[in-house]
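Data card: per-record layout.
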Amino acid sequence: MMKKVILNLILTLVIFIGMMMATGVMQKQLLPVLRLKKELAKGSPAQRGEAAGDTLLAEQSSPPDSATLMRKEIEAQRKEIAAKLAALRKREKEVSQREQKIEEELAQLKSLKEELNATASTQASKLAKAFQAMDAGQAAKIAGNLDDRTLTDLLLQLRERNAAKILAALDPSRAARIYKSLSSKDLQASSQ
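The structure for this 192-residue chain is written out next.
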């Protein structure tokens, strides 16, 4: 008869535990019940009643209250937020450093471009002096072998009369292309 009572008690505890888990009760609150089950299974009937009851009462008297649980949860969330904030600040610093590096490289590229333009202008100026001294026919033959950009820069350096003679000696389609390029450069120069 005692075995039936114990079995019924164990069955009731199992059902109770299942219901508690199904309703979302935390595992910490189930521990005293599980310990009671173990003690009932181990000791004699007299010991089961006293020891299990004492343990259950002792553990139930000090369960964490909801405020303590909320404080722990809030603290855990604060730590998580602090970690994410630190990671975000680190990324912001990295992005800032990359932006600064890009700005430095852009400034360096701009400087190199200005140097290149100055060098090209100096070379075009020297070439223009040589073309000024040549006969227009000779200058047109040489100019025919230059690329469009170099020829455009050169013609901008020449006197209008000499530039017109060179353009007249070029292939008409190329002369038209060069003339358009000269026009756009004149417009850019006058707008600055």
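Known properties of this structure: DSSP finds eight helices and no strands in the chain. Residues 75-191 form a domain with the Annexin V; domain 1 fold (CATH 1.10.220).

See the next section for split statistics.
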